[in-house]
Amino acid sequence: MKGVNYVTDANNRKVAVQIDLKLLENYNEEMEDLIDGIIAESRKEEERKPLDEVIKRLKKSGRIK
């Protein structure tokens, strides 16, 4: 596909992809969704905190009212 390149390892296995951002001009929302999904997947093992605890901490720091 034009504008898409794969990066391979020593065994010729695909390990990354490079995408020409000009191809994505009309797909901003979809790209944001893709990136959000990648971030969520990478954080799935992180410690979770209850929402009320997070809100209290943000209020105390002045980041929210």
Core attributes:
single chain, 65 residues, alpha+beta, two-stranded antiparallel ribbon, 2 helices, 2 strands
| Number of DSSP E strands | 2
Distance between the ends? 49 Å
Broad structural category? alpha+beta
Indicate the low-confidence ranges by residue numbers: none
By DSSP (H or I, 4+ residues per run), the number of helices equals 2
Fraction in beta strands: 15-25%
Q: Can you give the mean pLDDT? A: 92
Give me the side-by-side strand order of the main sheet: 1-2
Query: Roughly how much helix do the residues carry, as a percent range?
Result: 40-55%
Q: Provide the gyration radius in Å.
A: 19 Å
Largest sheet: 2 strands, antiparallel
Number of domains: 1
Order of helices and strands: EEHH
Shape: elongated
Task: Summarize the SSE layout with pairings.
Layout: E1 4-8, E2 14-19, H1 28-42, H2 51-61
Antiparallel strand pairs: 1-2
Description:
There is one protein chain. The chain has about 60 residues and is an alpha+beta fold. The protein has one domain. Helices cover about 40% and strands about 15% of the residues. It is built from 2 helices and 2 strands; from the N terminus they run ββαα. A hairpin with a 5-residue loop joins strand 1 (about 5-10) and strand 2. The longest helix has 15 residues, at about 30-40. The relative contact order is 0.09. The model has no long low-confidence stretch (mean pLDDT about 90).
